[in-house]
Amino acid sequence: MPIRSDNRVQRELLDAAIAAKIALSDADRVAVDVAGWQGEVTREQFNELISALVKRTLLACRRALKDAGVEAEEVLEVVMVGGSTRVPLVRERVGEFFGRTPLTSNRPGQSRRHWRRRSGRYSGR
């Protein structure tokens, strides 16, 4: 069945990929059953699939720091928000890049409030 022409199958694949990403944040492997295919995906396989995306994200961080005239070591805290922050490879690489463990939350509003409170202390507000 041609996947590109079947919106239902595309949606099933996307849902299965998201479910696998979430499961692999805590488990080393996950069973996948989608669109007539059954198999297993390991965290190692998942990491290989996303490594180029993670690398591009870190390049964007490097450009942002360069544009701001700031070195990674000068960043006081790293706050990561959203579902992908639960992915161990993402947290690990961001931590290596900035030289510190990032603060994470999958609740964006809560993280922004927390950051505003903390940044107010640093800026004297």
Automatic annotation (TrEMBL):
PROSITE patterns to which the protein is assigned, alphabetical: HSP70_3
Source organism phylogeny: Bacteria, Pseudomonadati, Pseudomonadota, Gammaproteobacteria, Enterobacterales
Record carries keyword Heme: no
Any GO molecular function: ATP binding
Family of the protein in this entry: Belongs to the heat shock protein 70 family.
Record protein name field: Hsc66
Basic residues bias locations: 110-125
Matching SUPFAM superfamilies: Actin-like ATPase domain
InterPro entries in UniProt: ATPase_NBD, Heat_shock_70_CS, Hsp_70_fam
Natural source organism: Kluyvera cryocrescens (Kluyvera citrophila)
Pfam family, one: HSP70
PANTHER family documented for this protein: HEAT SHOCK PROTEIN 70KDA (PTHR19375)
UniProt KW keywords: ATP-binding, Nucleotide-binding
Gene3D superfamilies linked to this entry: 3.30.420.40, Actin, Chain A, domain 4
Sections of the chain in a coiled coil: none
Stretch list, region Disordered: 101-125
